[in-house]
């Protein structure tokens, strides 16, 4: 019989998912599948040598794949009799689980006809009208009191569950437990749970609050932009459920990221921001003493509310108009909070991201973020994604140009996140799937999506006229009575409410808005959070370069011993072994310290003093240029998840935490993540290193919108450290320049620090200074590549034990000050090339001064360095970069050099010629340019 089945059945190949589903039914109950299939699966079990039925699907799937190679397939069963109809029944169930969402009633505007999908029709499987009354085994389908039901009952249950107001997508999930969990929740209630009267009133109250606030603002502040939520009011219902259900499941914090659509509504009706405060912003009054500030629909907020599980802290992150860029920032903030709480289960802090339909599909940062969502250094235990699906994107979008996928949420399938599409005009369905989503996240620690299919009543903003480009859609919108009214009428019709209650809800809410207050304000006043961070010590602190960063020699030796202690039987690579041995010698004072040792000692000393350290980037464990080796690898390890050792985790008992993660191949999302992390944790040194400095331009939005301007716009302090390898070594346009000019162009209001250290002691003191001062500013470090092992780029132990970071390093060799007629100013690697040229040519009339901190510009230290040479008439700024790049234009335009120099000084520039590309790609041309730069710096002195 089995051979006959294999030869005649057309269920293989394209229908492998169905066969796997059949196999899952067999595992749950062998009697639920036809005898032929049961015999076949029994044989497979026997071949796999299984002692129990719950075995891996590998052998079965492999068998299906082999069958698929035999040729074309169909979906109709060729076997006869009742077995044929039973298998067809299970196929039908499977089809609805896969495709039922295509027939779901999702669009409130009802603009499209239901597509023809043959697989959802019983006739496709050979059923006739006479078969509707026949009884069949329902397999794994939930919701029936017995194992059998008539085809009519099964079909009705399938359509109620999968083709009502909810369209589910989850069958692509490879984890059977997760699929079964979703099926049990959806199918047991047929996709329509029974809510209590109190819950229905709560849902209507939330919908009423959302709509009434928007209409109130529309009439009170005519024509002002607010990016209304009208048409998508069920979003507030979803947010209410996230907080209510999440709190009941043990969550104590929710961090929210969203763009401008509906933001004001979430601020007021979810976080409890005072309407009076919002009205003040509409009237143009500054809410805080900020140098720049931001528009009202970008502002963040935080509050504490009560949930069934206790108090919950809510945070809405500040966000620019770059839509989805806030998403990795939220993830980083959540991760930091989880680390602070030691929340290893990742159940106490939930990230919630609210997307627009066009943005979630169109913005690449989402792919980057999803790609790291389950990795060790970036996974937050799953995110609840809410898509406010206006079905339009920007006003002028033509559906043919909107996206290439069927749904805007298809990107989430890359991480096998379940997706629940839901009609926004059914607030109960929205509440149900949102609760389901939160439960799924807490249970499985995975991303989950609620796609609220709704519409946008007004234009992209309140000054926009959508009818100009969307006449068909907006004729439908104008005819729509509104989600609140539809739901209110439904509750009145079913007897839940009296006819006058909905209007009374509106009136009561408006009366409170007139007073500048909320009808139901959930905010807890005076709540003291156990894990709150105190930013007070860092607020309103004047900028200073001073910090006592020195540590005793004995402590340096002790830290060196710990950094070079490798476990017994741990086999290092021969090159790494030599590096560790040399570092041990450095710690004993037998060798001068190199860059890698200076950097690692900085981390070790901070960890010993109680400051946690986190380092991330594409190759930070080893270091792109083979210098860091913060993570050691056993050369005899046999598995990926073993055989690594981090010396910085073993500095001393009770030390602060150390994290070092090689990131996914991403700049934008990872840098956004680290920014979010650093804004949530001021007492941790957070370092992101680009693989090459040039690659940071892939994260330009994060730099511009958050790191450089977050403090002036939102008052958000951030101590993030960014390391950018930089230096012209003939490696071409994308491996030379960290685009220093861009950081200098954005330098203002002491918004960040831009430093170019040239010695191991400098990087040691600079990293320690970043934490030991009561100043939290982003730090941009233009780090070297060739200097990491340069014989001149070394430091003594005393320079670590007695020194501090020098913003300017004056001339270090003994020159006769009276004979010096030219001072060459430089930064970075080129100093050592200038020094070598001067020595080789025995030049005595030219001094070399290094500017180690470009911003904030150290005017006093610079003036002191110049004053050492009273007879010098020429001051040369020498840079490797082309004239139009690097620091020159910024230094010249801001008058930083001229303001210090006297009238006797002549300021000159030596650089590569202005260029469109950061560097040349031909090695010979590079050498010629570099040689010219060095020689011109020492050219004839003009009297």
Automatic annotation (TrEMBL):
Say which domain of life the source belongs to: Bacteria
GO terms in the biological process aspect are: glycolytic process; tricarboxylic acid cycle
Q: Which residues form the Transketolase-like pyrimidine-binding domain?
A: 593-790
GO MF terms listed in the record are: oxoglutarate dehydrogenase (succinyl-transferring) activity; thiamine pyrophosphate binding
Its recorded reaction(s) are: N(6)-[(R)-lipoyl]-L-lysyl-[protein] + 2-oxoglutarate + H(+) = N(6)-[(R)-S(8)-succinyldihydrolipoyl]-L-lysyl-[protein] + CO2
Cellular component terms per the entry's GO annotation:
cytosol; oxoglutarate dehydrogenase complex
Q: Which CDD domains match?
A: TPP_E1_OGDC_like
- What family classification does the UniProt entry report for this protein? Belongs to the alpha-ketoglutarate dehydrogenase family.
Query: So what does this one do?
Result: E1 component of the 2-oxoglutarate dehydrogenase (OGDH) complex which catalyzes the decarboxylation of 2-oxoglutarate, the first step in the conversion of 2-oxoglutarate to succinyl-CoA and CO(2).
Q: How does it assemble?
A: Homodimer. Part of the 2-oxoglutarate dehydrogenase (OGDH) complex composed of E1 (2-oxoglutarate dehydrogenase), E2 (dihydrolipoamide succinyltransferase) and E3 (dihydrolipoamide dehydrogenase); the complex contains multiple copies of the three enzymatic components (E1, E2 and E3).
Name the chain's protein. Answer: 2-oxoglutarate dehydrogenase E1 component
- What is the source species? Azoarcus sp. (strain BH72)
């Amino acid at each position: 019989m089995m051979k006959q089945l294999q030869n005649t059945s057309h269920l293989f190949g394209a229908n492998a998912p169905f066969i796997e589903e059949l196999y899952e039914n067999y595992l749950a109950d062998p009697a639920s599948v036809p005898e032929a299939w049961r015999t076949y699966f029994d044989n497979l079990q026997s071949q796999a040598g299984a002692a129990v039925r719950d075995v891996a699907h590998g052998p079965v799937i492999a068998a299906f794949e082999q069958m698929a190679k035999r040729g074309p397939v169909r979906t109709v069963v060729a076997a006869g009799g009742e077995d044929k109809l039973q298998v067809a029944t299970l196929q039908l169930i499977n089809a609805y689980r896969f495709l039922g969402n295509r027939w779901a009633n999702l669009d409130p505007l009802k603009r499209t006809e239901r597509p023809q999908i043959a697989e959802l029709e019983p006739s496709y499987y050979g059923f006739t009208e006479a078969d509707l009354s026949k009884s069949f085994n329902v397999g794994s389908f939930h919701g029936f009191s017995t194992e059998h039901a008539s085809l009519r009952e099964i079909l009705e249950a399938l359509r109620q569950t999968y083709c009502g107001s909810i369209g589910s997508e989850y069958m692509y999930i490879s984890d059977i437990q997760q699929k079964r969990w979703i099926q049990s929740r959806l199918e047991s209630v047929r996709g329509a749970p029974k809510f209590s009267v109190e819950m229905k009133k709560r849902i209507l109250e939330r919908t009423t609050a959302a709509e009434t606030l928007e209409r109130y603002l529309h009439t009170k502040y005519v024509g002002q932009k607010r990016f209304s939520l009208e048409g998508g009011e069920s979003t507030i219902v979803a947010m209410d459920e996230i907080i209510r259900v999440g709190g009941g499941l043990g969550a104590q914090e929710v961090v929210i990221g969203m763009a401008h659509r509906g933001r004001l509504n979430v601020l007021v009706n979810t976080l409890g921001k005072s309407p009076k405060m919002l009205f003040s912003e509409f009237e143009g009054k500054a809410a805080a003493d900020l140098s720049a500030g931001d528009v009202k629909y970008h502002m963040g907020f935080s509050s504490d509310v009560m949930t069934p599980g206790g108090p919950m802290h809510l945070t809405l992150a500040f966000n620019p108009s770059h839509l989805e860029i806030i998403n990795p920032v939220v993830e980083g903030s959540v991760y930091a909070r989880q680390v602070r709480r030691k929340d290893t289960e990742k159940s106490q802090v939930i990230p919630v991201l609210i997307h627009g339909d066009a943005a979630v599909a169109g913005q690449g940062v989402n792919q980057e973020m999803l790609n790291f969502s389950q990795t060790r250094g970036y996974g937050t235990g799953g995110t609840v994604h809410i898509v406010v699906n206006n079905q339009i994107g920007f006003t002028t979008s033509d559906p043919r140009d909107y996206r290439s996928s069927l749904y805007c949420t298809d990107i989430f399938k890359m991480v096998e996140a379940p997706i629940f599409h839901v009609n926004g005009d059914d607030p109960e369905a929205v509440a149900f799937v949102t609760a389901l989503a939160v439960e799924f996240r807490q249970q499985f620690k995975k991303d989950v999506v609620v796609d609220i299919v709704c519409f946008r009543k007004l234009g992209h903003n309140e000054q926009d006229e959508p009818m100009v480009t969307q006449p068909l859609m907006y004729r439908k919108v104008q005819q729509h009575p509104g989600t609140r009214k539809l739901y209110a009428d439904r509750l009145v019709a079913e007897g839940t409410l009296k006819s006058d209650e909905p209007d009374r809800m509106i009136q009561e809410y408006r009366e409170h808005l007139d007073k500048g207050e909320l009808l139901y304000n959930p905010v807890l006043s005076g709540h003291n959070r156990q894990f709150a961070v105190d930013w007070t010590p860092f607020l309103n602190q004047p900028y200073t370069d001073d910090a006592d960063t020195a540590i005793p020699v004995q402590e340096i030796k002790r830290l060196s011993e710990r950094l070079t202690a490798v476990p017994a039987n741990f086999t290092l690579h021969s090159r790494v072994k030599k590096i560790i041995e040399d570092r041990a010698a450095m710690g004993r004072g037998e060798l001068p310290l190199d860059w890698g040792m200076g950097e690692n000692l900085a981390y070790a000393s901070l960890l010993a003093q109680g400051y946690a350290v986190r380092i991330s980037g594409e190759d930070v464990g080893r270091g792109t240029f083979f210098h860091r080796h913060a993570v050691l690898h056993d050369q005899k390890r046999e598995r990926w998840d073993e055989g690594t050792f981090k010396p910085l985790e073993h500095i001393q008992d009770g030390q602060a935490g150390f994290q070092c993660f090689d990131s996914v191949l991403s700049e934008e999302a990872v840098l956004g993540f680290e920014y979010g992390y650093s804004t949530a944790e001021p007492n941790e040194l957070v370092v992101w290193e680009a693989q090459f400095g040039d690659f940071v331009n892939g994260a330009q939005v994060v730099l511009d919108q958050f790191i450089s301007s977050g403090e002036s716009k939102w008052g958000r302090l951030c101590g993030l450290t960014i390391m950018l390898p930089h230096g012209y070594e003939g490696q071409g346009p994308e491996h030379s320049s960290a685009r220093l000019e861009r950081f200098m162009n954005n330098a203002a209001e002491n918004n960040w620090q831009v430093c170019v250290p040239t010695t191991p002691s400098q990087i040691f003191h600079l990293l320690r200074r970043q934490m030991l001062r009561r100043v939290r500013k982003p730090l941009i470090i233009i780090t070297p590549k060739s200097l990491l092992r340069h014989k001149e780029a070394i430091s003594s132990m005393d320079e670590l034990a007695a020194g501090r970071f020098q913003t300017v390093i004056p001339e270090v060799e003994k020159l006769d000050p009276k004979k010096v007629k030219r001072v060459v100013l430089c930064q970075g690697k080129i100093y050592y090339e200038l020094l070598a040229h001067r020595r080789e040519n025995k030049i005595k009339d030219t001094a070399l001064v290094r500017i180690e901190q470009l911003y904030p510009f150290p005017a006093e230290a610079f003036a002191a360095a110049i004053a050492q040479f009273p007879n010098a008439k020429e001051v040369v700024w020498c840079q490797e970069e082309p004239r139009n790049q690097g620091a020159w234009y910024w230094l010249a335009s801001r008058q930083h050099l001229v303001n210090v120099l006297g009238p006797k000084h002549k300021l000159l520039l030596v650089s590569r010629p202005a260029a469109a590309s950061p560097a040349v790609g031909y090695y010979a041309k590079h050498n010629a340019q570099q040689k010219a730069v060095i020689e011109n710096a020492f050219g004839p002195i003009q009297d």
